[in-house]
Amino acid sequence: MTDGELRKKFQEFIPQFHWQSVETWSTGQGVPDCNFCGFGKEGWIEFKKTETMRVTVSPEQVAWMERRIRNGGRCFVAVRRRHSGGARKGDALDELWLFDGQAIRILKNEPLVAVPLNFLLKKTSGGPTEWDWPKVCELLLRQ
């Protein structure tokens, strides 16, 4: 999957939310991958995967998310950084990086570690069964 199975993992580990996958490539470019609603709060998440420190973000994704945020929307970028390790990569890892949507323009142009810490909401490692899902849920509702 192009989202590193994040869509599936968020639905599995945060089942108390109503999740709606969104596929609008032909009718509304830039719309995030998923809409969620939980405890009276609604938001959008763009899911990304990478083996490195960079993700691919389109100009349309930047424009959509920035417009939504300007109008009071709740937006996030979730990145699964995962690789099996090796001589050049180091130890194997499976991390979740959760960013405030305001980081999307920076993510388009810079590596994950270049995003200011105030936009990095959570970084958790060890794979989906070890990720701090209660904290992720809290952060999705907090904004």
- Count of spatially separate domains: 1
Let me know the largest β-sheet.
6 strands, mixed
Q: Count the beta strands.
A: 6
What is the 3D form? Answer: globular
- Spell the H/E element sequence: HEEEHEEHEH
Annotated CATH topology: Trna Endonuclease, Chain: A, domain 1
Based on helices, strands and strand pairing, what is the structural class? alpha+beta
Helicity range: 25-40%
- The radius of gyration computed from the alpha-carbon positions, rounded to a whole number of angstroms, is 14 Å
**Cα distance spanning the termini:** 28 Å
Read across the widest sheet, the strand sequence of neighbours is: 1-2-3-4-5-6
Mean pLDDT value: 93
Classified by CATH, the class is Alpha Beta
Low-confidence stretches: none
Which band does the percent of strand residues land in?
25-35%
The CATH architecture term is: 3-Layer(aba) Sandwich
**Tally of DSSP helical segments:** 4
